[in-house]
# Entry
Amino acid sequence: MGKNKKKHNKDLVKTPDSWDSSIKMLTKDLSVKYGEVYGVKGVSLPIYNRKVTAFIGPSGCGKSTFLRALNRMHELSKNVTVSGEVLLDGDNIYAQGVNPVVIRRKIGMVFQKPTPFPTMSIFDNVVAGLKLVGIKDKKYLAEVCEKALTQAALFEEVKDRLSSLGGSLSGGQQQRLSIARALAIEPEVLLMDEPTSSLDPISSMKIEELIYQLKEHYAIVIVTHNMQQATRVSDNTAFFYLGELVEYDNTSNIFTNPSDQRTENYISGKFG
Amino acid sequence: MWEQVKARKSLRQRSINDKIMVALITLSTILVLTPLVIIIGYVVVNGIGALNYDFFTEELGSPTRAMRGQPTGLVHTILGTAVVDLLSLIIAAPIGIGAGIMLSEYPEHKLNPLLRVMNDTLNGMPAILKGLLAFTLIVRPMGTFSGLAGGVALAIVMIPIIARSTESALSNIPWSIREAGLAIGLPRWRVILSTVVPAAKSGMVTGFLIAFARAVGEAAPLLFTSFGNNYLPNHWTGFIFGPVDTLPQRLYSLAISPYKEWHSMGWGAGIVLLGFVIVLFSASRFLYRKRK
# Structure
């Protein structure tokens, strides 16, 4: 693999000395262990408001694991332990007494595969996060539904059949439905785990445009295998390798002038 | 590649092998079906003569009724079976579903492995012991045999089957659905009840019916719980709080009785029981197909 420049990743992370308003989330020495094996090891990195942050790296490098640690999504899995801190607006989401349900309403997530709730209509899918916690005001729900579907660039396509099943949509539409569902609860951060990997190019393009628009309001984190996608949509890029954060910088630097040999090897296609 | 395959075995040889295998599979299918056909045929041939209007409208009474040709039948047995089986379903469904949800949805819970082992043990336990348990729990304190005790005994038969089938129906639902629910900030119980369970509903109903059909055919747990009764109770509550007749147990008593008139009624009871179970199984197959 050639010479490594062997910079410790902490030097590369531009971890600010004090909290400033441009930062939405900050991880401090975050590690995730599956049993005794590290999935993610000692990662510290800031996520900025109104920016798109891309995580890239070869399969199994820990980028998805890290993403899931950002909204405590792995807590259903057995034998997973997390250490370190994840700060959201300065507060540790892993602190004692913090309810993961509250955290997940602030930090939304979109998955690799579209996941409409199979027995629910399009409308019910979009407003599930509100309706199922007891909000019954039909007018309000209809407003939220329209707004979220519009944001997800799906409203025009489905407005005449909101009562048909979510599963009746095409794959690309289902993914935009999943995004609309995540937006309906008005999160502050949106985590996207390879949101276009199961989609055709046209649907992928729509979702990329969507990401571009959404960043006006949200902090967005996207895990992607597609490096062109990272260059197109993201402002900052983090490169993960073997569970560690190798390099984190603004996207153009990562792709034109990486400071670590491993990053250079990966983006030039020598492995991965 | 193809040349190598051809060299090893000629097409002709492989076609012969194929025919032999198909013949063996057909043979074993016939062997599986034979006992079923024989049982159904034999029961129907022997019992069809006993099925008349009185059979479905009269109570059994004493053996002399049958011997003197007076009206006698099994209406109290058919009604009793319906009551006891319904009671068992009402008791077993919530407990079995709850256990099934625990097994499928809370794999990390401390009690999960214990529940799994105990559920499987309970499933394998002889049905007569479940009757003994219900006898100790219900019949002794109440001081009387009762339909309720029979329902509890059958519920204990059904619970482990429902728990297992619920678990398998739920675990067929992709894990991603649960994560999607959690990701929009729903509490876990809400995700299970509103997204996972509705998606698994038809599989769960199929499981119920299989468990129910199994319990409907059980005689052993009823022998010292609902006990049996030759007469209709004076009041409908007697079906719940008094000794009650049920088809499998009545079939057994008729069969071991010394009266040949009763033997033929026993075959009749066999037809009714068989019909009941076949309807339940067909319904479950129908629902299963609909799901696919």
Remarks:
- Strands of chain A lie at 23-34, 37-48, 52-56, 80-88, 91-92, 107-110, 189-193, 219-223, 236-241, 244-250.
- The two ends of chain A are 12 Å apart (CA to CA).
- Chain A touches chain B through 29 residues (CB under 8 Å).
